[in-house]
Amino acid sequence: MSVFSTDFILGVSAWQLIRAAGLTSYMLLFLSTALGLLQSSRIMPKKSRPYIVDFHSSLSWLSLIAIFIHITALYFHKFIPFSITEILVPFTSDFKPLETGAGIIVLYFISILILSHILKRKFGFATWRAIHYLSYIGFFTALFHGFYVGTDSREPFVYGMYLTTAVIVALLSCIRWGLYLSRKGTRGVNIKEGQT
What we know:
- This protein has one domain.
- About 75% of the residues lie in helices and about 0% in strands.
- The chain has helices at about 15-40, 50-75, 85-90, 95-120, 120-125, 125-130, 135-150, 155-195, and strands at about 10, 10-15.
- Strands 1-2 form a two-stranded antiparallel sheet.
- Strand 1 and strand 2 (about 10-15) form a beta hairpin.
- The termini are far apart.
């Protein structure tokens, strides 16, 4: 029996749907994370920022939808069967419990991030920003899950995609925090000069 053709959903191989939805969700999460870093770095033109925020939010929603397609296909894929508990509760699966558990955690991370965006006014900016730091953990957890569970992770294109996206997010993170610390340092110097 082959993992590639055990079950079909609407005429599509369940395995193909699992991989397509998983990779799509990862790329949408990458784009959302990258846009979020660009926005918070304040290196984009001011006029474009509201559009970036909206696009960033839309990408998160689309990533979540792709995850639900991914886990639905997993439920119907019988070569490596997953129960509802194994799909929704981290580390309960017999198949690579750490790696599959990481994927489930990503589902909850993205859900929390979207919910915090919806309730931003109720949470307040400080709480919202603290919650949004989960996006770093969420992205690299998704990378870990996809790379170690994906059956095609060693294919040159997929491997290159994971490597390239990881490097881009790491570089944007360095730029974002470098600019933040630079602005904070400049602000501190200005305050001291104003007091003398």
